[in-house]
Write a structure and sequence with these properties.
The complex is a heterodimer of chains A (about 170) and B (about 525). Helix content of chain A is about 70%, strand content about 0%. Chain A has about 170 residues and is mainly α. In chain A, a hairpin with an 8-residue loop joins strand 1 (about 115) and strand 2. Chain A is flat, with a radius of gyration of 27 Å. The two termini of chain A are about 40 Å apart. The mean pLDDT of chain A is about 80. In chain B, the strands form 3 sheets. In chain B, strands 3-2-6-5-4 form a 5-stranded antiparallel beta sheet. A 5-stranded mixed beta sheet of chain B has the order 8-10-11-13-12. In chain B, strands 7-9 form a two-stranded antiparallel ribbon. The model of chain B is unreliable at about 500-515 (pLDDT under 50). The chains are: A mainly alpha (about 170), B alpha+beta (about 525). Chains A and B meet through helix 2, strand 1, strand 2 and helix 5 of A and strand 1, helix 1, helix 2 and helix 3 of B. Strand 2 (about 125) of chain A pairs antiparallel with strand 1 (about 5) of chain B.
């Protein structure tokens, strides 16, 4: 034990030393090779949609992990958690739908939307099908996310009722 | 005419769906809050609460993007929507990220929480196990204490209730504990008189016996059935049959001794009495045989000497010689008669007699002589002494012998105490003749009743007095005992049965001797 501890300490000291030298060399390089530098990075418009799409992917990945985790840890043996797992899967599907919807929206020209802006009578021209058709149907993503949140509500409510009835999970 | 699909379904689904999202997510939040309140320490409910909160925020931001957008555009609020649009999208994005981050973070937290709960459960189980062990230990200790108490009570009862003497000695050889029987047997009154103050060594009559005992203990670790003579508080001695065990330390040194002893003084005395009675009975048989065989020739010798003496002149040498023969023959005849009395072969004339009256006569007869010898005779007669069945003359002879022996034991001056006493409810009377003379040495005490045993110079006594007395008392179904301390005097005690049938009631008045019919 003592010998092992000493070895780890030596290793840690060596790493610290390497980092310090790396910092010194990098600083020297920056000072010796000056160039144009920008104080602030400029963010252009597409960053918004990219960040939003990445957020959809991240959210879907987190939900997929949660759904797997509920299965792996046998939470799904209880009804409440089964409903929550279903909500996860539906939300993943909604993320996919939304992701694809945003992507399709980017492909569809604004000129295809005819009629008064914001009006219920507005129409989508299908000249750029299949992107326009895809965009049209994917725009109705509430058909997926509302059932997902409803499942989540049922799941949480079931768990609450179990707890309230003293017969619920103690997880 | 315009071609294409109407966006009205999209419009309505957006508005209605967004509204439902707000309603549903806030109901989710409501139940999540209730769950969290029900079990505040449960990290899962905290996660669901955070997720619901993030989704509620998401639904609100989404509502801005879908509902507000629709109405703003419809009512010409293009500029306002242009301002709100980036924020709505950004908040919407943030809510995804937060919900995702919470979900990822939750899994990590849940893993830690599970580990904590597992450890907590293990700790609780360990705690319960410790409690159970503690409880078991307490029960065990209580049970053992109870058993120990019962054992202590049992052994204490044996210790205290034993008729034998039980004691414990400490390292110094002093009494560390002793039972009631031992305290009483040693003549003490209380535990404190002996424990911590008296050593066993100090009680031994002879120190050599004690040292020999301890030597055996050191060598063997125990001593079994060893006869020891101990001094009692009263000054007398007791014979004990002692067994002891030594308690030793690791170095082999005696640290304590445990002893148990039985007082065999009375038993030994009884054994000696039986031996003596047996011996005297044998001697009596021999004496009776010899006496009978000698008695007839003596009678012939006496008869012929008297016959020849009559034919001789009165002052002649032959006459004087025959007188000497006659005198010695009579002496022999008296000895033979004494032997017959000792052997209980002599005929007795038994009648109801008053022992007090017999004693008065004997004391009166010897009184003058005792006065001359400065010997005080004290009498303590029991006025209610029952009559006994016996030969008055023989009883007087016994009393005479005892008083003469007492007188001879007192060298110069002293006193003799004669007492009688009815033993209550026993059917016996006790007669005691005590003197304060020289006493009887221990070594000859066993032989004083033997025929011809005497301490007097040759020619001054035949050694038949106590033997005859013994024989007479035996003939009266009684017993005679002597207790003596050398230098302090002796006491002869006679126990005789009262007259059968009226022993308790009938008392005999002086001069009222009756003949047994």
């Amino acid at each position: 034990m003592g010998r092992m501890g000493t070895r780890n300490q030596r290793r840690s000291r060596r790493l610290t030393s390497v980092r310090a030298w790396g910092l010194v060399i990098a600083s020297a390089g920056i000072l010796c090779l000056p160039d144009v530098s920008w104080a602030l990075q400029v963010h252009v418009a597409p960053e918004g949609i990219v960040a939003h799409q990445l957020a959809h992917m991240f959210f879907a990945a987190a939900l997929a992990l949660l759904a797997y985790w509920l299965e792996a840890n046998r939470f799904v043996e209880e009804k409440g958690w089964r409903l929550i797992q279903a909500a996860c899967l539906l939300l993943i599907l909604w993320n996919v739908v939304a992701f694809c919807g945003h992507w399709a929206a980017d492909k569809v020209s604004p000129d295809l939307l005819v009629g008064e802006r914001g009006s219920v009578t507005r129409r989508l021209l299908l000249e750029e099908a299949p992107w326009a058709t895809l965009y049209y149907f994917l725009s109705m993503d509430h058909l997926v996310c509302v059932p997902a949140i409803f499942c989540l509500l049922l799941g949480i409510r079931t768990l609450y009722k179990q707890i309230a009835g003293n017969g619920g999970t103690t997880r | 005419m315009m071609e294409g699909l109407s966006l009205a379904p999209v419009w309505f689904i957006d508005v209605i769906g967004s509204s439902l999202m707000i309603v549903l997510t806030f109901i989710c939040l409501y139940y999540a809050v209730r769950l969290r309140r029900a079990q505040p320490s449960n990290v899962i409910w905290t996660y669901l609460y955070a997720l619901s909160l993030a989704l509620a925020a998401f639904s609100v931001s989404r509502a801005v993007g879908h509902i507000a957008k629709r109405f703003l555009l419809l009512w010409g609020g293009d500029q306002i929507w242009g301002m709100l649009s980036p924020y709505s999208g950004a908040v919407n994005t943030l809510t995804f990220l937060v919900a995702g981050a919470i979900t990822l973070f939750f899994q990590r937290v849940q893993r830690i929480n599970t580990a904590i709960l597992r450890d907590q459960k293990a700790l609780e189980e360990a705690s319960r196990e410790v409690m159970r062990l503690n409880s078991d230990l307490q029960s065990l200790v209580e049970a053992r204490t109870h058993q120990l108490g019962l054992s202590e009570t049992k052994y204490r009862a044996i210790f205290e209730g034993s008729m034998d003497l039980i004691f414990v000695l400490d390292e110094e050889g002093q009494f560390a504990d002793i039972n009631h029987a031992a305290i009483a047997a040693l003549g003490h009154n209380s535990w404190e008189d002996l424990v911590g103050t008296v050593s066993l060594e100090s009680l031994f009559a002879t120190r050599d016996d004690y040292h020999a005992l301890m030597e055996n203990l050191r060598r063997d670790g125990f001593v079994r059935d060893r006869e020891c003579r101990l001094k009692l508080q009263s000054g007398s001695e007791a014979l004990l049959l002692l067994s002891m065990t030594a308690g030793k330390n690791e170095a082999g040194e005696i640290t304590s001794c445990y002893g148990i002893a039985k007082d065999i003084t009375a038993r030994r005395r009884m054994e000696k009495q039986l031996q003596r009675a047996d011996k005297l009975a044998s001697l009596g048989q021999i004496s009776a045989g010899i006496a009978h065989e000698i008695n007839n020739p003596l009678g012939v010798i006496l008869g012929y000497s008297q016959l020849i003496k009559r034919s001789q002149p009165e002052h002649s040498q032959e006459h004087q010689d025959l007188q000497t023969i006659e005198r010695q023959a009579r002496n022999c005849k008296r000895i033979v008669e004494d032997l017959l009395k000792f052997a209980r072969a002599a005929e007795s004339k038994k009648a109801s007699i008053d022992v007090n009256h017999c004693l008065r006569e004997v004391v009166a007869l010897l009184g003058h002589q005792f006065e001359l010898d400065k010997i005080l005779v004290e009498t303590r007669y029991d006025p209610d002494l029952p009559i006994i069945e016996g030969d008055a003359e023989k009883m007087k002879q016994v009393f005479m012998n005892l008083l003469m022996n007492a007188k001879q034991a007192i060298s110069e001056q002293g006193s003799i105490t004669v007492s009688t006493q009815a033993i209550p409810g026993d059917g016996h009377i006790r007669i005691a003749v005590a003197d304060d003379g020289c006493g009887i040495p221990q070594e000859i005490a066993e032989r004083i009743f033997d025929p011809f045993f005497t301490t007097k110079p040759v020619g001054e006594g035949t050694g038949l007095g106590l033997s005859v007395s013994y024989g007479i008392i035996q003939d009266h179904s009684g017993s005679i005992e002597v207790s003596s301390r050398e230098g302090h005097g002796s006491t002869f005690t006679i126990v005789l049965p009262t007259k059968a049938g009226d022993s308790d009631q009938v008392t005999f008045r002086p001069g009222e001797e009756t003949t047994n019919s």
